[in-house]
Design goal:
26% of the residues lie in helices and 24% in strands. It has nine helices and 15 strands. The strands form four sheets. The chain has a five-stranded mixed sheet. Strands 6, 7, 8, 9 and 10 form a five-stranded antiparallel sheet that branches. A hairpin with a 5-residue loop joins strand 9 and strand 10. Helix 6 crosses helix 7.
Length: 337
Amino acid sequence: RLLSLVPSALTELHRAGSVPAGVRAINLAGEKLGREVVDRAYQLPHVERVYNIYGPTETTTFSTYSVPARGAADEPTLGRPIANTRVYLLDRRMRPVPIGVPGELWIGGEGVSRGYWNRPALTAERFLDDPFAPGRIYRTGDLGRLRPDGEIEYLGRVDDQIKLRGFRIELGEIEAALARVPGVEQAVVVADGSPPQRLVAHWVAAAGSALAPGDLRARLAETLPAFMVPEIYVRRAELPRTASGKVDRRALPRPEDADLRHDGFTAPATPLEQALATIWQEVLDVPRVGADDNFFRLGGHSLLALTMVMRVEAELDRSISIATLFQAPTLRALART
């Protein structure tokens, strides 16, 4: 039996003890794969092989693969191209880079699509004639490096696009949406790299603004899909800058270093609230949960929501849906549903 999913989904299924029995092979794709996830996968009964799959939708998803070794210490690589696929690591002048030198990943071969529907300008930018072989190549925007053994290492992006839980996200698009909210003077969005990975919005309020994080979340939810709405909002007096005046994303403190909670703390009152709080603490890995705390402001997301819902059903014999959690995201509100 084969299980195919993104690494973060496997992590949550593993935490919930819900990986289907009898799985012998696991395909992991859509996100950067870390060694810790691979090791957990090999700990599952019957799992014989784990595949790290890489490739954008524009090249029919599967373009390279590797088989991370059981018990190895090194991070998984992107591996090598699959059959009928060519992968190039090129510099800005479309020249192949030497072994060990970072370059942008371009993909050619049978899997390359024709382009984007009714978007000729974007198609012309991303799809070019292959200068090295017949056919076309696609510009991925990913950075990589070829190792002496022929394996390709993933190094990140050349722009602000990230992949989170299998979704492509342009951080600049979220920042632009935040900038349109009255009362927001400046904003920058980053992906917190610690598991579980979360979108964090750092923002500076305009003078006299009374905006709260909940207001920002509600406004963004009106124009952005749910997977692009940041989980955490950190209000700052100013954003750190580089010597050239640009926002220094690397100098932004991690969310654990900021006060991300509501002002004040109201302890869970009813037995149900207390039981829910215990589950939230363990699922979200936070020291305490108050009655007015918001599941998503504490770092929750859809995958953790699935874990929480399953635990509530198993331990409290109550049936709730993830949709209900989005409608009633605070502990008190969820207890009343």
